[in-house]
Predict the 3D structure of the following.
Amino acid sequence: MSKAGNDRKGCSLTLTLTVCAAAIGGTFQYGYNIAIINAPTTSIQKFINETCLERWGTALTSSKVTLTWTLIVSAFSLGGLLGSLLAGPMAIHCGRRQTLLLNNCFLMASAVMALSSRPAKSFEIIVVARVLIGVNAGVSMNVQPMYFGESAPKALRGAVAFSCAVFTAMGILLGQVVGLTEVLGDEALWPYLLASNAIPGLLQLLTLPWFPESPRYLLIDRGDREACGRALGRLRGREASDAEMEEILEEQKATGEARAKSPWELLADGDLRRQLCVVMAASSSMMLCGNDSIYFYASYIFQEAGIGVEKIQYATIGTGACEFAAAIMSNLLIERGKVAGMPYLSMACIFAYILSFGMGPAGVTGILPTELFDQKARPAAYMLAGSMMWVNLFLVGMAFPFIVNSLGQFCFVPFCGICVVSAIYIRLTLPETKGKTLAEITAEFDKCNMKGLSSSAQNQLQLQETQHRTDLTSVHLEIEEI
């Protein structure tokens, strides 16, 4: 085998193992915890009623049970919002890899609470457990794409980044399988189902410490060039190339000694406003399209569609299988009124909806802040984009059961307009990022910004570009000295 082939193999093997170790306790957990809450719907609602009857001597009305259930489901989103706000500071001070490891504290606490909820006869404990697992998901959904985007070579950046969506879909599918009545979906086992997320967390704790930190974090944030070189060597299976080291040094030169931006500073930065609007719009539309609500409330949806009660849990697995298949296909390609049969037509439409989601926003949205922002602005960008994602997931999660009850089979019609408007906006504002460096992508946005500027402002930008070229020349000379 040629040396190039050996390098490619080493790079692929190391990256694959790093991706698996990080994602099994990261975006996999997001998908898994979205899916497992659907299976015990009836069992937990019964537990809520029994608890209230024992405490106060009266059962809740159907609408109050539904409201309490939506609070349990949507508590995950509130925790996710808190996790998004924690992710930035944690990633800056602890590093990307260490943050993912520390994040398992929230997961383990959630598992303990889920197991103790029934002995304690408290459905409120389930709410707290869902908040904690939401915090875990909020941190991982922000930090894992950041870690991957900063660790992958430019040629594999798209495929490595899209693995986040693959593991999310894998988590959804596995969560649906584990939720079958034949596995952990039986009424007596629902606390163990909710606590089963501790197993992937343990796998991450055992494996991720063996893999390197993000090379960009090591050099740009910590200023440790030797550690950066070692990390690149391990991730690439060979000595780091001059071109890649030059790109990281160029970004370090551009950021200088400046500290990481806060979300408020990023919001006030006019030069980055267009990029910020793009990532916030993409994150919001990913949740407002209603796709993830299918997993929260699959039983409601298929029941309204007319699917038999005994078949619903198996139809639910079809939704996870669709997104998993779409994620795998995209990962391989990115670098390249009831009538007879109506219930099953509705189910087919839901599957098609999920397929389109899995092949588009599910995998692309998470990596956008890594591609559009430099090292100092990236954590704040993830905090803002993640916050928009979780706020909108909470709103849709709270409203979705009532939308299903009102519209039945047509419950997804209101989301159609959101999908169309979002697609048009992204098409008009987001340049192609495939195979481009951060400097090249930033130049594309600068061109768009130039169109709306006065001639004096354009001259100022041209002067800045000349200075940037001078800095780039000095970086070339520094690389040659190394």
Q: What stands out?
A: The chain has a mean pLDDT of 79.
